[in-house]
Amino acid sequence: MKRACLLLFLAPALAAEAPKDWFAYDASTPIDYRETLLSSRDGVRVYDSSYASPTGGRVRAYTIAPERPGRHAGIVWQHGGGQTRNWFLPDAIALAKLGVVSILMDAAWNRPPEMRPPPPARQIEGNRQDMIQVVVDARRGYDVLAARPDVDPKRIAYVGLSFGAMMGGSLAGTDHRFKSFVLICGLEGFVRHYSTSRHPSIVQMRSQLKPEEFQELLALMAPIDAKNYIGKATAPILFQAARFDPGVTESDTRDYFALAPEPKVLKWYDSGHDLNDPQAFSDRQAWLRKQLALK
Fold first, then answer.
1. What is the pLDDT along the chain (295 residues), one digit of tens a residue?
2. Would 100 be classed as within a structural domain?
3. Is 240 within 8 Å of 183 (Cβ atoms)?
4. 18 domain-assigned
5. What is the C-alpha to C-alpha distance for residues 52 and 35, in angstroms, rounded to an integer?
6. What pTM was computed for the model?
7. Owning domain of residue 210
8. What CATH number should be reported for the domain holding residue 117?
9. DSSP per-residue letters across 215-274
10. How many separate domains does the chain show?
């Protein structure tokens, strides 16, 4: 009942903001990609890299590429909260040996101050700005990969964990250039997550904000929620979920999965939110090998 009343309260604000294209960007702006080689071994090169973000500042990343020549597949990776760009390094290095070039993005708040865009005037608006940047920077990450002579632009996927999986749903319904998606431990959006999650960090946030501030935060986040976009996805999606996730319940997962069109697959693992399960790694690799036609 409380949640229903809250959503009714938010309805006027949502109606006013809905027409905006939240994830639009100017694709003609320079990519300004830069890289420095960190490692070259076992047929894989690892680069410290960055590129210009259309929202301002620069995207800090790792680029992982096979040493052998060829027209490779590509993947844009987004870690979750509490992690950094190195989270998916084992995935990316293993796939590089099969012929994949990867961009592993750092979240905006993990980047040095000089690489971040100017903050909004009000801190509460920073949450939405950061999440919009996740999608826009991923779209630009596609551009980075597609511009490389060693990447086939028709075989580029996206993998996201936690908030990366939530905004990955918004990305899937917005940018149909991606060949496939893997969404790990996500749910339909921040209105539901902030309102119902029992994760200690979310509970603490709710207790610290005044009721009117919390309602404003939900109204700000609602237009970019994945539930508004994922139904328009055209690429196959693998959902990976954890049975012992304190922040994403089984109903959260199943409701998110139900919003996505076919083709889609949902797999469960005996793990927590980080999904550090060897079988999850194997299933993710198998899915990407098939979707990206890796030999």
1. 333 333 333 333 443 344 589 999 999 999 999 999 999 999 999 999 999 999 999 999 999 999 999 999 999 999 998 899 999 999 999 999 999 999 999 999 999 999 998 888 888 888 899 999 999 999 999 999 999 999 999 999 999 999 999 999 999 999 999 999 999 999 999 999 999 988 888 889 899 999 999 999 999 999 999 999 999 999 999 999 999 999 999 999 999 999 999 999 999 999 999 999 999 999 999 999 999 999 8
2. yes
3. yes
4. no
5. 12
6. 0.92
7. 34-291
8. 3.40.50.1820
9. HHHHHHHGGG-GGGTGGG--S-EEEEEETT-SSS-HHHHHHHHHHSPSSEEEEEES--TT
10. 1
Angle among Cα 253, 255, 256 to the nearest 5 degrees reads 65
**Residue 155 CB coordination number (10 Å):** 21
Structure tokens at 70: 């060829």
AA identity, residue 84: T
| Residue 156: half-sphere exposure toward Cβ, Cα within 13 Å | 26
How far is Cα 4 from Cα 258, in angstroms, rounded to an integer?
Answer: 20
CA-based nearest residue to 218, from 244, 182, 193: 193
Asked if residue 59 is part of any domain, the answer here is: yes
- Asked if residue 27 is part of any domain, the answer here is no
